[in-house]
Amino acid sequence: MGFGIINFLFAIPAFYTIDTFGRRNLLLFTFPFMALFQLLTGLGFLLEGRAQLAMVMTGMYLFSVAYSPGEGPVPFLYSAESMPLYVRDVGMSMATALTWFFNFLLAVTFPKFQDAFSNTGAFGYYAAWCVVGWFLILLFVPETKDLTLEQLDARFSISSKSHARFAMRQCLFFVRHYVLRRDNVKRPIMELPPQDDDYGHSTSDQPRKISFEKNERMPTPLSQ
Fold first, then answer.
1. Is residue 126 a contact partner of residue 36, using CB atoms and an 8 Å limit?
2. pTM for the full model?
3. Close Cβ partners of 118 (under 8 Å, ≥ 6 residues apart)
């Protein structure tokens, strides 16, 4: 009961942050905490008595706090946005079914992980996958907040390789601007390929530069 209440309460902030802070940013912010709290839970099993119970329960509850505003609601919204309208109903059905399949797989395999790695090793394994997931989100998950349907199509027309390079430039900007406190560092800008018209002809020979920051709207076909 306590886990469910925490899950519900800490999902509420996502209603206010998912369109302001951003889908990708929520995932990038919460995944490190998910890894940390799963590791904390696993280390709790090394203790004995009441100390073990307290540390394990604390780790599980804190994991729920980190999971609820990020990995809980964001994938369902993101799955819908990443698919064209004409296949969105089928695509969301498949995405939801896949989510519950892996939930089932996790429940079935957890006892075997306990036997093979112990409780500490099992939770450490899950924590490691949260770290892997953070890097995958950083490199291959585009931000979709504040974008119209036409802008979403343009956003997902960017190749994964191009987005990965853009993500690395974002990391360098973050380190130089926020860690090293350099004010003369330019924010990285994503370049989109020239947009085609209804007949497949390019409307421009020059790539469009989009930073995808709030209040910097991407040009739509009607505005060009």
1. no
2. 0.81
3. 45
d(CA 211, CA 221): 18
Locate 142 and state its tokens: 């585009």
Higher pLDDT, 193 or 85: 85
Pairwise CA distance, residues 89 & 83, whole Å: 9
Rg (CA), the chain: 21
Summarised one tens digit per residue, pLDDT across range 107-143 is: 999 999 999 999 999 999 999 999 999 999 999 999 9
Q: Which stretches of 97-153 are assigned E, i.e. beta strand?
A: none
Question: How remote is the C-alpha of 217 from its chain's centroid?
Answer: 22
Separation in Å, CA 107 to CA 61, 102, 114, 169, 174: 18, 8, 12, 38, 38
